[in-house]
């Protein structure tokens, strides 16, 4: 008559066989690691119950502890599935929202803009302090200064300006890409300031692995969505 060894030895032997099986499956599927899933864990528990020593049976407390571990494992797997579903749903919602931005105007911190000179273009200057002399220089695609907008004395903060698309001689310039360089006299020192200018969204690039999506702007390239200050019509 064949006698059965202690439950621990049987469990250890069966555990090793399961691990070898998981490893083979990993080699076929290319998955990393050989962690046992809930099905293998349940098989191990049943095998321990079938092969326990009748003279020294496993205590109820040990079974309860293993069942608790099994429940925890199953709960974690369910939670992972739920989180994956939520992430997928969020990406789908983000893609839907992003598609509605194509063709719309946004305001972004930049020094260049594609300007339709047949109508006014509105922008703003980010002043870091009170300025006694504030101005915005408008430069064409060749880097030539074509217009200087005198904003005078301004308090610190965001200062709006409007360009009518004309040069200093009052002639309407052709539509195209223009650069805007703002300066301010703060405490007697002339300092360069940043500008916020309009741009048109041409397409949207979705972030990979949960990363932030980017907006592709006409004449400016790609910028992160978080850098957009406002969205117009």
UniProtKB/TrEMBL annotation:
Protein name according to UniProt: Basal-body rod modification protein FlgD
Keyword tags: Bacterial flagellum biogenesis, Cell projection, Cilium, Flagellum
One matching Pfam family: FlgD_ig
Annotated region (Disordered), positions in chain: 1-32
Annotated signal peptide: none
Residue ranges of every copy of the FlgD Tudor-like domain listed in the record: 93-229
Extent of Basic and acidic residues compositional bias: 19-29
Family membership noted in the UniProt record: Belongs to the FlgD family.
Functional note: Required for flagellar hook formation. May act as a scaffolding protein.
Organism lineage: Bacteria, Pseudomonadati, Pseudomonadota, Gammaproteobacteria, Pseudomonadales
InterPro entries per the UniProt record, alphabetical: FlgD (IPR005648), FlgD/Vpr_Ig-like (IPR025965), FLgD_Tudor (IPR025963)
Domain FlgD/Vpr Ig-like: residue ranges: 117-185
Superkingdom assignment: Bacteria
NCBIfam families with a match to the protein in the record: PRK06655.1-1 (NF005176)
